[in-house]
Amino acid sequence: MRSKKIIYTIIALALFNSACKKALDLEQQGVYTSDNYFRNEKDAVNAVSGIYSLLEEEDYIGHAETTFDTPSDDYWRSGDHGEDEGIENLTYDASNAAIRYPWKWRYEEINRSTNCIINIPKITAISEAVKNRSMGEAYFLRAFGYWRLMVIHGDVPIITDEDYSKQNFNVPKSSIEEVRKQIEADLLKAVDLLPESYGSADRGRVSKGTALGLLTKLYMYWEKLPQAIATGQKVIANSNYALAANYRDNFTRANESSTELLFSIQAVQNVVQNDFTIYYIPRAWGGYGFSQPLQGLSNEFEANDPRKQATLLTVGDQVDLGDGNGLTTFTADLSATGFAFKKYAVFNTAAAGGGVDHTFAVPLMRSADIYLLVAEALIRTQGAGAGDAIINQIRRRASTALPPVVGAGMKELIHERRVELAGEDQRHQDLMRWDKAKIIDIAAIYNLSVSKAPIDQNKTITFVRPKNYYFPIPQVEIDKSKGVLVQNPNF
Questions:
Q1: In this structure, how many other beta carbons lie within 10 angstroms of the beta carbon of residue 333?
Q2: Of 51, 183, 280, 443, which is the most buried if we count CB atoms within 10 A?
């Protein structure tokens, strides 16, 4: 975890005397710390932007966090990372590198957010609107850091404002109940402080709807279903968070102005690279070819559902790579499963030479996710059919050719979440939520033939309850704590 003290240092360039090979001493020209940095509105905005910048980190949201959906029956890991194989097959332990990578970035997000929460209120040269917005952003982003920690690990350390001020980062774990309360408290503050929407100059900033959306998800994972309904309905009822008219537009450059994107990774071609998409694109097309969809996911789509074509590339499909050679055909040698995610195969067709489009905003949370969580909560509290109206909004947006559901229960809801959110890193956590509630049998699902890649057909996946509901704390963090951190049970 990161100390608050040095934000950045500006240093004069040193010249070397090549004859005597003696370096001149560096002269420090200026130092900013948390105590003297936060002077005006620009400093507040820049400090908050520094929190957002972490989302592009390859070992954080930029890619590493997607690894935790690898055990799901939506896609095969592919690639040459042995640590991903351990996650997918549920044979990982606390030394697994994929478990270690994002830990520090989650706490970096939490610490940068706390730095803003402590210091922005001290600024006097700032408008009330920007101060409130900046504080709301910091509260949301801190909550998001804890959210990822809670979803992946369960019990984790909470760094209080006092801990941060005293630079006391070696603290014991808090219970998952305490972590949920911490997330809830931050999100409720964010809801109060954030604006409902932004102008184009502030595209990508989190809004009131973003905070309400994550709060809805928190309540679902907390099994507080009535609260999830009440909170999620505020998203559904607000036109600022309306579903995009076209499902496909959520996964193209058209999503830049989409009301449906509650939270996304923003990037700019050749300036701030977004590594997320490159992992999904076949190697021959400039990507890494990871996360290849499975037959079971393909089978899940109804015959007349256009979301399948928007989500998956199958053998024979054609794509414009922007390389000036017209359409390129997706062939069997590009994937070990026969599929790739078209959702993330976005190419820069406007530039000479084409290549992967890094300006594409990658959705991290869409309104459709919140719609379906509310529908689920209605079904589970009021019975089959209670979520029909909401599910049918999602289906009508996909295609008017899809028949409406009538009397939909959890089977229909589970289907709708899978096809709507395929490849968006929800499936494994969804299945674990439903397994805990005894709605499905996750162990049986993961051993279906269509849930595995062709080369893994002889493998048996053993899901151990409750061990595999959460991942272990990285062993390196346990070691560094010198006894303060205690490993999760069964590891």
A1: 9
A2: 280
State pLDDT tens for residues 306-325: 999 999 999 999 999 988 88
> Tell me, what amino acid is at 488?
N
Residue 147 is which amino acid? W
And the tokens for 305? 């559902």
Helix (H/G/I), strand (E/B), else coil: 446: helix
Question: Helices (DSSP H) in 194-281: which residue ranges?
Answer: 208-221, 225-236
375-411 burial, b if ≥16 CB within 10 A, otherwise e? bbbbbbeeebbbbbebbbbbbebbeeebeebeebbbe
| DSSP conformation class of 275 | -
CA atoms within 13 A on the CB side of 75: 32
The answer to whether 76 touches 280, Cβ cutoff 8 Å, is no
Q: Helix 225-236 crosses helix 367-382 at what angle (to 10 degrees)?
A: 140
d(CA 211, CA 221): 15
Q: What is the reported pTM?
A: 0.92
Long-range contacts of 281-288 (CB under 8 A, 24+ apart): 281/340, 281/344, 281/345, 281/356, 282/330, 282/334, 282/335, 282/340, 282/345, 283/334, 284/334, 285/319, 285/321, 285/328, 285/334, 285/345, 285/347, 286/321, 286/355, 286/356, 287/345, 287/356, 288/79
How many beta carbons lie within 10 A of that of residue 41, not counting itself?
A: 16
Are the C-beta atoms of residues 237 and 287 closer than 8 Å to each other?
A: no
- Rg of the chain in Å (alpha carbons): 23
Total number of residues shown for the chain: 491
Task: Summarize the chain as % helix, strand, coil (round to 5).
Answer: 50, 10, 40
**pLDDT digit string, tens, across residues 172-206:** 999 999 999 999 999 999 999 999 999 988 989 99
Cα 303–Cα 304–Cα 310 angle in degrees, nearest 5? 100
Widest CA span in the chain: 85
Residue type, 276: F
Amino acid (1-letter code) at residue 146? Y
